[in-house]
Amino acid sequence: MSESELRQLLIKQDVEGVLNAVESSLPGQPGNATRRNNVSGCRIFLRWAFDSGQSVLSPAETLGAAYLAFLKRKHPDTPASVINRLAHARNLYTALRDQGAVAADPFTQLDAPSNDPALHKEAYTEAEIQRLLTHGNAREQALVLLGAHAGLTGPEVAKLNWRDMQFEQGVLSVRGREVPTGTALHAALQHYAHSQGVTQLFGGEGKVFPELDNDHMVRAALFRVCLSGNVPYRAWRALRNHAGLRMLNLTHDEQRVAQYLGLSTLKAVKFIQRAVDRGMGQESDDTPHKMSKP
């Protein structure tokens, strides 16, 4: 098909005609899943563009961003679908350019959203955290707050040793970083430490949770606390997200939140910022800080 004929199909908004013309230039082999998915994604894009009055032949600079916004509204809980459909639209423009039908590509400068599952997890609410603490014993309260206030990962909790804690300074030493505690976590750790015979005066040695050998056991322990508190179970990361929400609400500093959670990139903080923007964050007077001697 000639360039002019393909352009005429775009002008006439002939979706199936355009697809027939470019299908051989799309990724995949005839009839396989990759090709079928690309054709389907291109069909969705073309119908959206034509229905919304967008010009595919001479696209506005904002077309890519507008389509991304449409996909996010259509797939709010499945970022992989957003990324895949966006890739299909990019592939369509590559095919159109290769056949000489268009010159501009509205997706060239568009940043694709991340499909990191960590960015799309929920966070425990403040009310849910309080229910967990109310129904938990000393050990379980310390466990919950290490995730919800200190923002430790499951593996970090499983490996945590009493010697990692500096009670007088109010900090935890975790993987080379110092994690300050707030009032609630500091009190919970002291209460649990005393129940285990570990005192501030003499310190301690050995694992904080000797029965939790790995991340799986940490999650199982959280699951049991959720059952007793009648709180819907979410992954351990949802506790870390809660910690991030608290810190971001208090500091409004993404870099500081990343350091606090032990993240090497700001990418994972984006979920937390979006959550704050949606109003999920709640103010707390239990600011993470180095505690004075109790």
From TrEMBL:
GO terms for biological process: DNA integration; DNA recombination. InterPro entries: DNA_brk_join_enz (IPR011010), Integrase-like_cat_sf (IPR013762). Transmembrane segments: none annotated. Signal peptide: none annotated. One of its GO terms (molecular function) is DNA binding. This is Site-specific integrase. Keywords: DNA recombination.
